[in-house]
Automatic annotation (TrEMBL), chains A, B:
Gene3D superfamilies: Aldehyde Dehydrogenase, Chain A, domain 1, Aldehyde Dehydrogenase, Chain A, domain 2. It comes from Agaribacter flavus. Its EC number is 1.2.1.41. The gene is proA. This is Gamma-glutamyl phosphate reductase. GO terms for molecular function: glutamate-5-semialdehyde dehydrogenase activity. Residues 4-285 form the Aldehyde dehydrogenase domain.
Length: 416, 416
């Protein structure tokens, strides 16, 4: 079986106006029909998922991968609920925030519009198929989904739900294309289709993102790793710092907004480090410590250059003592991944400087890095977290899948 | 002489914080020092320009190219004035438009920050060297400028002005790099430096833009051609339509916001077309007309498929009669270049539909396409007009050379 991605992309382009110009009421119906379809097709989705799981075991996939692949009734219900949430979020299209009268007499505003056709390239989790489709449809885009080979049967069952909902609204199936044969050739060919596809969002390992970024002729939004820092300033309130450290490092370790490096101001080391050591010991956090802090930790290993760059995604952390505020900022600028950085301080000047000078996508004062997520930051569901500065930076919701055009109102005005 | 673009880009990256964190007062001084430097070095700039002009003549460049290359005292003064205007525009960096309290108790806003290192690739006009540098510096970015070979001596004289102004402010010259040897190898190598360069903006012919888009591993903002449409609706007021047509087609023909195609609703043809024909005859506009309109024009040639795609940049226009509103929109969506489209109508419903459904970067009601320019739309100076939807769409000023990061204010907040 071969799949004609060029034709599919052209059909998506031809169908994009149909989704862009849908009324709010029709868009709501479409999304609710997807949620309903997920619930009524739960058996066929789970059956398809069983095929993927059996193949995964046969192919010797890791437990972690199989875990991400698996869908049960509760999993399908969670996806359906997420679609309903997206459906009921405020409309993003058509808004004009302000209109300015200009000296010539024309009035100028900017109106939010869809991007057109958005392609997602992702790996095993089948829930991404529906999450991404729902966010793209909410933003008025046609979507092309290229999931992982290991989730092929599940994704096809989910595609059937999408297409049935589109059909019920009298809309073309090409608005949501789920690539049936996710081989490498299809992806390579997709990356050249800049006439039809407006944006590519790769989600997955660093290798995939790097490959897509280097080979795409279409704009790419990158979601690289999260090497998140917590800087405990000399004027930190330790009653805030310790819970923020515990929450950031231990609440969930496998996520990109977990803390990976702790920087402690030299002047507060004697006071803070024993408490930090006690927390890590209690929570069984493995420590990679710099020379100036290693004596505080039982069983810590000496931090190497690799530790400053590490995204452990585990109960592990790198710890470094810094001489002053500037050293902390310099360290973050050198080793940070542009994701999320936190300062804990009661010093207003340092708080202001940190918020201003550290240019990762999310900068926090006295709050846990775990808030760095679309839902927690008020965007509703998210399609990922951009660590590249173009177009969107940080968590991306439906609004970040749109753009703005200029709208100009005249009454016969000409330029003199 | 070879030029190490990799080293230059790394130096620009190392210098970007110095320009990003400059105070407003220091940024103003820097830009005013550039304007002052242009005035005090006017003789050396014009001398250098004479070398380029002599080479251009020797190499048989066209009169139009030589015209774009030439700089006289008035030209240098105009560039200096533009820099002063940019200097005095409102600050774009550091602004936070709103802060939202969220259910968790954290407060979330977005702060405007520089992109980092911006590279411009452009052709003959030497004024772009200073315009682009000034806009990038205003937006807090380091800039790498790769102008055309034919303007090499002029660009080096302008680079000396930039570097002298940077030095006076105690800033590294790497903040504004003007590539001394603009050969193709340097450009090819530049397109791979995604570790150092955050954005590439090519300005020039379609070939250059296509080449850069297809080969860059760095995000690109495209400035393609302007095939701008004017649609005279059935309910148009011809007292508005005719001046808007005249202004759009004849005020300046060689610019991307000039009109190239006129669409006329079938129901208004008998009333409008004789007046339009008389205007074109008086203004000596060559007409490429569809079958249904050709009889109105003396000496018109029959429009072919190529005419619907043409960017004449001359006193020429394509004319087509359309059956209805939808046919006009369909024609624009098929042949438009995403630049600027105008409707002239007194019909509120059609006006609203046009503003909503046509997704070029600038959509106008009863106003001339000639307003489609950064200055006229209130952005101040512009670095170009984006016809790609990612990051910026339409005229780009200093603000479009920035991005936004999330800023989160807590008081010990953790995620539960």
């Amino acid at each position: 079986m071969t799949f004609d991605i060029k034709l599919a992309a052209a059909e998506a382009k031809a169908a994009k106006n149909a989704i862009a110009n849908l009324t709010q009421a029709a868009r709501l119906s479409l999304l609710l029909a997807i949620a309903k379809g997920l619930r009524s097709c739960v058996d066929s989705i789970i059956d398809a998922n069983k095929i993927d799981l059996a193949n995964a075991k046969e192919n010797g996939l890791s437990e972690a991968m199989i875990d991400r692949l698996a869908l049960d009734e509760a999993g399908v219900e969670a996806i359906a609920k997420a679609v309903e949430e997206i459906a009921h979020q405020p409309e993003v299209l058509g808004s004009i925030n302000s209109i300015q009268p200009l000296p010539s007499g024309i009035q100028v505003g900017k109106m939010r519009i869809p991007l057109g056709v958005v392609a997602m390239i992702y790996e095993s989790r089948p829930n991404v198929t529906i999450d991404a489709a729902a966010l793209c449809l909410k933003a008025g885009n046609a979507v092309i989904l290229r999931g992982g080979k290991e989730a092929q049967a599940s994704n096809q069952a989910l595609a059937a739900v999408l297409h049935s909902a589109l059909e019920k609204q009298g809309l073309p199936a090409a608005i949501a294309t789920v690539i049936p044969v996710p081989d490498r050739e299809v992806m390579q060919s997709m990356l050249t289709l800049s006439d039809s596809i407006d944006l590519i969002i790769p989600r997955g390992g660093e290798g995939l993102i790097k490959y897509v970024s280097e080979n795409s002729q279409i704009p790419v939004i990158q979601h690289f790793k999260g090497v998140c820092h917590l800087f405990v300033d000399k004027d930190a309130d330790l009653d805030k710092a310790l819970p923020i450290l515990e929450n950031g490092k231990t609440q969930r370790t496998g996520v990109c907004n977990a803390l990976e490096t702790l920087l402690v101001h030299a002047e507060i080391v004697e006071q803070a480090m024993p408490k930090i050591a006690s927390l890590f010991s209690q929570k069984k956090v493995k420590v990679h410590a710099c020379e100036r802090s290693i004596s505080y930790f039982d069983g810590a290993s000496p931090a190497t250059e690799a530790d400053w760059e590490a995204e452990y995604l585990a109960l592990e952390i790198a710890v470094k003592v810094v001489d002053d505020f500037d050293s902390a900022v310099t360290h973050i600028q050198r080793y940070g991944s542009g994701h999320t950085e936190v300062i804990v301080t009661e010093n207003l000047g340092n708080a202001q400087r940190f918020m201003r000078e550290v240019n990762s996508s999310v900068i926090m004062l006295n709050a846990s890095s775990r808030f760095s997520d679309g839902g927690q930051l008020g965007l509703g569901a998210e399609i990922g977290i951009s660590t590249s500065k173009l177009h969107a930076y940080g968590p991306m919701g439906a609004q970040q899948l749109t753009t703005e055009k200029f709208v100009v109102y005249g009454d016969g005005h000409i330029r003199t």
